[in-house]
Specification:
InterPro entries: Acyl_CoA_acyltransferase (IPR016181), GNAT_dom (IPR000182). This protein is an alpha+beta fold and 174 residues long.
Length: 174
């Protein structure tokens, strides 16, 4: 298992013990907008997902890592998705579960670790993310890590009966 260590947090692979944590996140309607989720997930499906989490990013086209502090508390998740080996790119998603842990540098450190991993181990050329126009904290986070807004998708996501615009951000890795 590769562990990516930062000053205050580390990233690790998914473990079977993460079932309850992921179950709570995947069934939290307040964050469904972030992941375009529309239905709840059963523990059975999440358990199956965890059983296949060992599969290689080249096979499943995604990598989900757990964000932990050095007290081994699980804080959040950070993902690479839509992994495209041919074009050396992937999408990035991040969620710090507890609102009290947000805006404390945890997401920034996790994103820095993932960027470094993407360059050094996956040889990616670029990363991208999709962020709601109203999600100021995520926009600030990704911009602080040299992601640039390259487009605005108008009326992209239907959320609670109204359409929201979504930014597409990109970072070319050097």
């Amino acid at each position: 298992m590769i562990t990516l260590k930062g000053e205050h947090i580390y990233l690790r692979a998914l473990e079977p013990e993460d079932l309850e944590f992921i179950y709570v996140i995947e069934n939290d309607e307040s964050v469904w907008e972030l992941s375009s989720t529309q239905t709840p997930y059963s523990k059975f499906l999440i358990k199956q997902y965890l059983e296949n989490a060992h599969k290689d990013i080249y096979e499943v086209k995604q990598l989900r890592l757990v964000i932990c502090n050095y007290d081994d508390q699980t804080i959040g998740l950070i993902d690479l998705f839509d992994f495209d080996f041919k074009n050396s790119r992937a999408g990035v998603g991040i969620l710090v579960k507890d609102v009290n842990n947000r805006n404390r540098g945890i997401g920034k450190e996790a994103l820095q670790l993932l960027i470094s991993y993407s360059k050094e181990h996956l040889n990616l050329h670029q990363l991208y993310c999709n962020i709601s126009e109203t999600n100021e904290n995520s926009l600030k986070l990704f911009k602080s890590q040299e992601f640039t807004i390259i487009g605005l998708k108008k009326d992209w996501n239907l959320v609670k009966g109204s359409y929201k615009n979504e930014y597409l951000l990109q970072r070319i890795l050097k």
